[in-house]
Amino acid sequence: MPGRDFLQVPGPTNIPGRVLRAMDRPAVDHRGPEFIALTHRVLPKLREVFRTERGAPVIFMGSGTAGLEAALVNTLSPGDRVLAFGIGHFSHLFARIATRLGCEVELSGLPWGSVIPPDLVYDRLSADREPRYKAVLAIHNETSTGVTCDIPAIREAMDRAGHPALLLVDTISGLGSIDFRFDEWGVDVAVAGSQKGLLLPPGLTILAVSDRALRAGEAARLPRHFFDWAPVIEFNRKGFFPFTPATLLLFGLDEALDLLQEEGLEQVYARHALLGEGVRRAVEAWSLPLVAQERATASDVVTGIRLPEGHDAARVPELSAERYGLSLGVGIGPLQGKAFRIGHLGSLNELEVLAVLGGVEMTLATLGVPVPIGEGVTACQHWFLSRSAPVAG
Ligand SMILES: Cc1ncc(COP(=O)(O)O)c(C=O)c1O
Q: Is CATH 3.90.1150.10 what the domain over 264-386 is classified as, yes or no?
């Protein structure tokens, strides 16, 4: 198909040309001076995107799932009790990994589309007098439903309960797109992935680790070798890794972090808020319900949209890809066939979002879903115009 494809799944996201070009280079010696300089450049820039001065950034090769496993094996021991909240596919995944690693997971299963209620965190922790829970597993942005949890409120609930558990946060689809503050929010381990807000291909998972988590790591007995963060932090001091790192991805990361810095993190968040709201206004113009139970908790990086009974939502991404080269997210788990998702994160602008909404409208109409053609796009245009600066004269 001529023209560009529209990759609007909620990760992997579009890779900016500058990032592609930064990776288009000969391989380097991963112990040579150029690579050492690269490591020393990238780590401080990662601190900025995590908004941390005291947290240690740790890079592993692997997808986000590997990062979740790394967060657990470095902080916990077999039989440790952890508290988890299932609000969608990925929060359940975090809990499942902990279970398979041999932790005792107490999982509160909540409706898909809801957020983690801070009061429930408080209730569970304040009832734990001993205290037995070693960690709280939280998700920042639940990609399968399209909601964003209030991590500072969860931290506040933990503090109010006076509970010493570590706060482990999956921000795989949040970091680099929506507000995340490692230090200010008192996060102990944050897990990110390269293929979302960090504008890279899949392949890296990046953690930020607090001093408390590092200390917990010294006593933690879950088996680990590749995912042991201590040797990574040790080797990184000299600019190396204890294994052969994905050198070219790291050149891409260096450039991607520059792009985020040049735009400014606050502006990056504001852009995602603008685009996310534009998509929500379109969905409302179509009179389709969001998967998010409450509008205020709907995510600025991904929108989950339910279809009326009798329509197979799995057909939407199939047809949009086939007809228009537009990749949309499918409904996962209980949302399979009931909902589809539009990813609106990473390197993305207003006109691209309008094109995507136009493609979704045509796809829905072709499938016989009763949407008023043009009204979603129009609602989004009005929103963008209402937020754009007037032109003098
Ligand atoms: C919030 C969240 N957690 C975990 C994962 C799993 O990451 P990966 O597929 O990179 O292993 C994803 C992937 O989309 C995600 O969005």
A: yes
